[in-house]
Amino acid sequence: xxxxxxxxxxxxxxxxxxxxxxxxxxxxxxxxxxxxxxxxxxxxxxxxxxxxxxxxxxxxxxxxxxxxxxxxxxxxxxxxxxxxxxxxxxxxxxxxxxxxxxxxxxxxxxxxxxxxxxxxxxxxxxxxxxxxxxxxxxxxxxxxxxxxxxxxxxxxxxxxxxxxxxxxxxxxxxxxxxxxxxxxxxxxxxxxxxxxxxxxxxxxxxxxxxxxxxxxxxxxxxxxxxxxxxxxxxxxxxxxxxxxxxxx
Length: 248
Fold this sequence. Notes:
Elements: H1 2-21, H2 44-51, E1 52-54, E2 57-71, E3 77-92, E4 97-107, E5 112-123, E6 132-152, E7 164-185, E8 190-208, E9 220-234, E10 237-239, H3 241-247
Antiparallel strand pairs: 1-10, 2-3, 2-9, 3-4, 4-5, 5-6, 6-7, 7-8, 8-9
Helix pairs in contact: 2-3
């Protein structure tokens, strides 16, 4: 009986002895990392600038003054100063280069008028958000022109009380234009624009309104014209609402 009691006590003592010999492992506590702070909202001015996107297309309309010099029928040089309108459109390829198309016409309301269609390119060295943006144009064009002339009547006779016979010369040709100007920002979409261009054209007369034929060499001629325009440019601006909502 005594032996059983000793064995029972020994069995109960073994787990206590084992737990007493084990070294307790210290608990390691990690400090939780705080979540990253939210970025501060962008200033309203910066956000609004980022929210505006310009259209690739822009349009200009400008009154122009054109000074033209052509060989006169019968000799000398004929000079015409005409008033008209220039309509310009360009498609922006990037911030500095654009493809352009121009349609313009002018007349002095009595002795000459011309119509011009031109295709070319425009280069802007400054950024689009600059207040003053100079530019340079290079274009090729097709020109239609008509001018009035007067030549002596054949044989020195008198026709309708005059020794001169008047008529109209109709001509067409191609030419090259170079120009420079600048844009000045008025609003986000509207700018003041001005330009000075020079055009050199090779013309060919295809019709005259007089019974008398043109003298030899007057059917083909060179024409020089200088044009100045002052008008307005419109470039649509779109607002990106997502950016404004993110700011507010």
